[in-house]
Design a protein that fits this description.
By secondary structure, the chain is mostly beta strands. The chain has four helices and 40 strands. The strands form two sheets. It has a 28-stranded antiparallel sheet that branches.
């Protein structure tokens, strides 16, 4: 309704031309059947059309009094503005200097087809009063007996610089009154920020009971705000939660924090799967979190920032509704960054909190990086350098210095042959001090590498389709590593994305070790009228030096690697199949695969995915090596669907299976209803997981949004 009143206020301002009648004010009387001058009045009658700064006004009669500078319009008064909003009046009177005025029987049809009506509008000192106002954004609903919803108020007071006040506000849905307020005050459309309540949220859960999130916004200044948003639950206590944000020249700062007692942990009782950790929380007497960020732009090249991300325990952010955070690792850091052309400089210190390994995470991580890039000999020279320090519990401290120096160049040979040459040298130095002896030693190592890849894209064309067939062969020559580095990700695997690069590991300071040949092909097919038909890739690697010790699941444990492949089929614009797999020729089995179907039709959509394989879990934050090379079986499937029996209604559901026995982990059903004036989202979800003080539960979510109201 506020939006409608804003348009109405703009409309009234169009009549401010009463100060002068000459054309210098962009006022043009385009047409009238009859024009009379009586004393100080100009009277236009019959099909009067006035254009004012791009707005068109029509009426049966318009009278302008030059002495008191009043304008009176009568008989089918219609205005159409530049935004295609149309306003109707029976009559309208505007007095001198826009001090006062009155319009009768106003109706407004806005560009988005929202509608407003009122018996009378009174203008006093720039403020507006509406009597018996009705507003609805519904348009398509007019074809039926009842509107989806409409709002009615006996009086509406509009101060464009402050608030809109409603008296006796009633919300009607499908012709029935469902909500009443004797008084409601909301910010005016011209007011961007104002203290007051925001829309609340709620949910219902079998473990939490009813949960409510009221939100109160406090406008401290144009650059500062505070939001109080406590979580109130029926069964596991309440949470004090607030957000503060501040913006200043060249930067910003914000903090999001909450705190509560331990009633939620007590609720888990003896059912907790981690009794030691829940006992620790109970002893501390509180749970909570703090997320804070600071950023400042020093100049066009340099900027600094800092963040704090901490939680009292690994399950807290999932225990309460509205606090959902799925990050497995929380990082707090302070950094300085510099961007100069293609070059980059970073100085960073971090502290990690992870729900995977608890207090085994390092306490501090100073890192200095410098990345330099330039053109050299028609190729690209890259120099990356890094200094790092990591402090662990149990008395381990490790320092590392590393530098990658590489040169890349692409060659185009006759007949479309493409060659890519890369020369790389990695220099690494590691110093380890520890009380508990492990297999990590201090060392210095220099490892060179040369790689050359050949590609030959071949275009195959027929009357039905076009295809590009690209055979690829690459050779990588490098020595084997002699030392284990605790900073490197040990689990580097060959997959359908990186097999042509030899299965590079994730860290930019790792280097492929050993020499190997990579070979494979890619095939892409296209429709004659445009669009993809299919994409297929297949490849593997063969070691030509001694086999390095790698876990089975990497696909590169043996001389000949597993075969990796991917296939995507595009049946139509609405239906596609996607897959990738890792096949062992030694054991004749698929060690890892993923495939799924995605379909979207007019009344139906679905997303189905199945995955299975082995995973090597290794975490460099562990002091001991007990998990290095450990492989675990995993499998699962996901299925989401939607059905639209009508234009506005969508039924939805989902299933998630997983773990060793492929048990049902989560399932949900719900519905979404949407038309031009209303959104309704209702979902019932049941989760089966049990970890820490998290238990299986059933939750109900209901969200209703009335468009253009508030």
């Amino acid at each position: 309704m506020e939006r409608s009143l804003k348009f109405f206020a703009i409309f009234l301002s169009f009549f401010f031309f009463i100060q002068s009648t000459n054309c210098d004010n962009n006022i043009y009387f385009i047409n009238s059947d009859e024009t009379n001058y009586v004393d100080d009045e100009v009277i236009c009658k019959g099909n009067v059309i006035i254009m004012y700064e791009g707005r068109i006004i029509s009426a049966e009669e318009v009278t302008y009094n030059q002495k008191n500078e009043n304008v009176t319009a009568k008989g089918k008064v219609i205005l159409k503005d530049e935004e295609q909003n149309v306003y109707f009046f029976d009559s309208l009177v505007v007095h001198k200097n826009f001090e006062s005025g009155e319009g009768k029987n106003i109706k407004v049809i806005m560009q988005d087809r929202s509608r407003l009506a009122a018996n009378r509008c009174i203008l006093k000192h720039g403020n507006f009063e509406l009597e018996n106002a009705i507003y609805t954004p519904c348009y398509e609903c007019l074809a039926f007996d009842e509107l989806t919803w409409q709002a009615k108020a006996s009086q509406v007071y509009l101060d464009l610089e402050d608030t809109i006040d409603y008296e006796n506000l009633t919300l009607e849905m499908l012709g029935n009154s469902v909500f009443y307020l004797p008084y409601l005050s909301v910010p005016s459309p011209k007011v961007k920020r104002k203290t007051g309540f925001l829309a609340p949220k709620f949910s219902i859960s079998s473990k939490r009971g009813f949960s409510l999130l009221p939100q109160y916004f406090i406008n401290i200044s144009e650059q500062q705000e505070l939001i109080l948003k406590p979580i109130i639950t029926q069964r596991i206590g309440s949470v004090g939660w607030l957000y503060y944000g501040s913006r200043f020249e060249n930067g910003e700062f914000n903090i999001d924090a909450s705190i509560t007692g331990t009633k939620s942990v007590k609720d888990a009782g003896q059912n907790s799967t981690n009794k030691e950790e829940t006992d620790k929380i109970l002893k501390s007497g509180y749970r909570g979190h703090i997320f804070s960020n600071f950023r400042y732009e020093i100049d066009e090249i340099w900027r600094c920032s800092a963040s704090v991300n901490l939680a009292s325990d690994r399950y807290y952010l999932k225990r309460f509704p509205f606090l959902q955070n799925n990050d497995r690792v929380l990082e707090s850091n302070a950094l300085l960054e510099g961007f100069d052309d293609r070059n980059y400089t970073l100085v960073k210190t971090s502290i990690f909190q992870t729900n995977m390994v608890g207090d085994e995470a390092p306490k501090a991580l100073p890192v200095i990086e410098r990345n330099f890039s330039t053109d050299l000999f028609d190729g690209t020279l890259n120099i990356d350098a890094m200094l790092m320090n990591l402090l662990f519990n149990h008395g381990r401290e490790a320092k590392k210095a590393a530098s990658n120096i590489s040169w890349n160049k692409e060659f185009i040979a006759p007949y479309g042959n493409l060659f890519e040459l890369k020369i790389l040298a990695t220099l690494k130095a590691l110093n380890v001090n520890e009380k508990t002896k492990t297999n990590y030693d201090s060392f210095f190592e220099a490892t060179p590498q040369v790689s050359l890849a050949w590609k030959w894209p071949l275009l195959l064309s027929s009357d039905l389709l076009d295809a590009v067939f690209t055979p690829i062969i690459g050779i990588i020559a490098a020595g084997n590593k002699k030392h284990t580095d605790i900073f490197e990700e040990q689990f580097s695997e060959i997959n359908d994305i990186n097999f042509l690069e030899g299965g590079k590991s994730l860290s930019q300071y790792n280097i492929d070790y050993g020499s190997r040949i990579c070979y494979g092909a890619k095939i892409s097919t296209y429709k004659k009228d445009g669009g993809n038909l299919a994409y297929f890739t297949i490849g593997r690697t063969t070691d030509i030096t001694d086999i390095a010790n790698k876990p089975e699941a990497t696909g590169m444990k043996y001389k000949n690697s597993n075969i990796v492949t991917a296939l995507d089929l595009f049946f139509t614009d609405e239906l596609m199949f996607t897959s990738s797999a890792n096949y062992s020729t030694r054991t004749k089995e698929w060690l890892r695969f993923r495939y799924g179907i995605r379909a979207t039709y007019k009344y139906f959509d679905t997303d189905f995915m199945i995955f299975k394989g082995r995973q090597c879990s290794y975490n460099p934050f562990f002091v001991q090596e007990q998990d290095l090379g450990k492989e675990e079986e995993y499998k699962g499937s996901m299925f989401d669907f939607g059905l639209k029996p009508t234009k506005n209604l969508r039924l939805k559901g989902g299933l998630v299976f997983g773990s060793d026995k492929n048990k049902l982990i989560k399932h949900s059903v719900g519905m979404e209803y949407q038309n031009e004036c209303t959104n309704i989202d209702m979902t019932v979800e049941q989760t089966k997981y049990r970890t820490g003080d998290l238990k299986p539960e059933t939750a109900f979510w209901f969200i209703i949004t009335l468009k253009n109201l508030g």
